């Protein structure tokens, strides 16, 4: 199983394709030892190259393209080298190498700052197929950020425009294609682009790369239990689908369709194929079920979060739950005592009097510093951040999903004094 994940890349970085290679740690040796030849896969990404060893105890090696001094074909200095007869060889000279997942353990990345040369031999494909792409991306990494983003976008568009959905993956040869478009599969901190295909029987998502567990995600329309239009990045382009998997259990797939109107077209086409979306009557029914104890508090709160466009797949709009209990020290809770509950007449940010006063003082100081006074001053605010943002969400989820924190913090955990340790 490939342990490579898009979470090991920078946010927004694109993974294109990979190549079967062998890493030669001592390429000039006449008879190299077995442990000096490491088979694995070389992942070509928009801002880095990642080598994933086949042996899971060895660390993955990431070569950031801005830190690469030279990437080119390689040939040994001596004809006595064991690699003298090989032609498909490439080397990467890099000022900084990032080691990840040593012993396959999620831990902070190790940044090795020294100029090193890494030699790879290609097993099945020609070196030119990889080298041309990598050198083009390497040139892009030396450009200013705006120009770099434009060049990478052009490369990505050129690759994706040549690809279409592979109809060999259709489950039934008699299926009729209703709609085909492009979209992204949304998971926490990750967008994975691909092709979206709707037939009269199933919804298919085929990513452009091979990073997913399955080459094509297939959702039977008859198994869909929920269809929700979402706002993604504050735009009406998200569509989340709840369905029952063939092997049992409920699953979700969250799609973001960037082209204007595509989300609504897909949603309408699915409704026309018989998919039932939850109606207003369904909302009222859920409330009545909760009032009569048929639905738990947890499920009802999840339902309300879903109506507010909140999803576990989107860290910018993660589900929120009301903070009600204030007593975390008593062995049992007395629900008849007022002290058991927090003061619901105030927002959470106003519960601590000292903190509230310091925030008010800071707000007045901002008005004096900017010369803006009065309630209409645009530069004045009480709270400088929102409780529902990726940084705050991962503050509480770091023990459950440490790989997300490493992705957000560039391979490091936050400072220990700022890490979550207690509810008190």
Polypeptide structure, described:
There is one protein chain. With 424 residues, the protein is an alpha+beta fold. The protein is 23% helix and 28% strand. The protein is built from 8 helices and 14 strands. Strands 11-10-9-8-14-13-12 form a 7-stranded antiparallel β-sheet, with helices on one face.
Provide a quick synopsis of the model:
Helix content is about 25%, strand content about 30%. It has helices at about 125-140, 145-160, 260-270, 280-290, 295-305, 355-370, 390-395, 400-410; strands spanning about 15-25, 35-45, 50-55, 60-65, 70-75, 90-100, 110-120, 175-185, 190-200, 200-205, 215-220, 225-230, 235-245, 250-255.
User: Would you report the number of β strands?
Assistant: 14
Provide the gyration radius in Å: 26 Å
Strand order of the largest sheet: 11-10-9-8-14-13-12
Q: What multimeric state do the chains show? A: single chain
Helix content: 10-25%
Averaged pLDDT, please? 89
SSE string, helices as H and strands as E: EEEEEEEHHEEEEEEEHHHHHH
Q: How many alpha or pi helices?
A: 8
**Largest β sheet strand count, sense and barrel closure:** 7 strands, antiparallel
Shape annotation:
globular
Low-confidence stretches: none
Spatial gap, N to C terminus:
41 Å
Q: In terms of structural class, how would the helical and strand content be classed? A: alpha+beta
Q: Into which percentage range does the β-strand content fall?
A: 25-35%
